[in-house]
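Can't paste images in this forum, so I'm doing it all in text. The chain is below; anyone willing to post the predicted structure tokens underneath?
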Amino acid sequence: REGHCFVCHQLVSFTIEPSLDGGPVNWRETLACPNCGLINRWRSCLHVFEAICEPSGEDRIYLTETLSSVYQNLAKRFPLLVSSEYFPGSKFGEMVQTHVMPVRNEDVTCLTFVDAKLEIILCFDVLEHVPDYRSALKEFYRVLRKGGQLVLSVPFSFVEKTLVRATVDDAGNIRHIVEPCYHGDPLSTQGVLSYYDFGMELLEDLREAGFQECFLLCFYSEHWGYLNDNVVFVARKL
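Text version of the structure:
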């Protein structure tokens, strides 16, 4: 399918991956650009980030992933970019050697950054894998400076309440409430469990974390190859 890739600034033929079970196409996870390799979800999140945040090369940006094409793209353009992955068996705040490169280790519910350190945080489809995601939102608020912005994407439905798919008790035991759902994980061939399908109450969660301005963007564009429902949350520390 032809369209313009915002990241590459070119007219391209996006690649469409059909559903493996013969069901409807998951448009968020396909429409890959043949040049940069970014799918619909990644391209659209980066488009929102640049249009809304208007970042500069002097901004201190934290990306909650490293082993992805998103990191590769941003690292070329933003020299102060910091990124991480989650290695629970290693010390947080330090580098962990992976099969690809050394990667900073962070737990988003207890970040090692000092207060008011960052201008921008980018968190793309990560929070659904964090049982205590509300603590992560509070940490994002803490480490952003005044005027800082959070750009956030998650699996989302236009319902009021967030669907809790699974919970974890104090002993680390997982209790599945609905059928387990696993997403792709660069650190595990088994995938990573999704604990939530978020609803509109995520806006209230952001406000309770401290953010004074919170909104979501809903958009669709055949020109840019953003098909079906695309939703990105933006929160600001004023």
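The chain has four helices and 16 strands. Residues 40-53 form the longest helix (14 residues).
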